[in-house]
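Final report, section 2: Outcomes. Of the targets proposed, HEAT repeat domain-containing protein is the one most frequently requested by collaborating groups, and we therefore present its record in full.
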Amino acid sequence: MINRLAILLDGNDRNVCLSACRTLGQFGEKAATSEVINRLAILLKDSDRETCTSACKTLRQLGGNAATSEVVSRLLIALENGDWNVRFNACRTIGELGEKAITIEVITKLFDLLCDIKSYVRSSAGQALDKIGRISLRSRQLQGFSISEGSAFEDGENSAHENLNSRVKLFELFMEREDTHLIPSFISALLFMECAVVIDEQHMIVFGKKESIKIKISNDKIKDKLINNFCELFNKIHVFK
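The predicted structure is given below as tokens.
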């Protein structure tokens, strides 16, 4: 049955393809065969919005086994799709696929999407980041870090302005590994969320609407990069003019 449905994902008949996606999703993890996953990965780059979003929905129903390198690569591209529905569903799918979907490229792009023009996309990206944060802590996917006191990743309502703590903590994991790839995207997200930031000799303090969070800066190189990125962004938005 599953193999027959996989054949129907060839995309030649849009309605048949969409129906096959929905049916395969109902099978859940049982449908996570290599043939099904490969065909769904191909559909992620389909020019038809509904076909692409349907593939996203089916993949997240298949679970973590669907997070192949090809699927993650295609989802990363989908995060940049011009259609907000595609970006929204790609974020949701990444959040559901688990630790196999966690890459620095994915996390960086999700932080970028916290500034998306569409609130649904911002919310979906935030939810994905919060799930990735919890997964990273549990599995030690990101090695060589310690978490400061307090709740690291909290459940609750997710939006561009909520769960600031979890997103800052995720950024902190990279800082403690002295991985600076995330800095530009993180800074943009903070400004979009209307956070105030103070950088002193050893810390960056982020002030949200209801909370403040302190991140330790491990060395001058990271501090200089943080300051330079803030200055570059301010210049782009003409703050100094």
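The longest helix spans residues 119-139.
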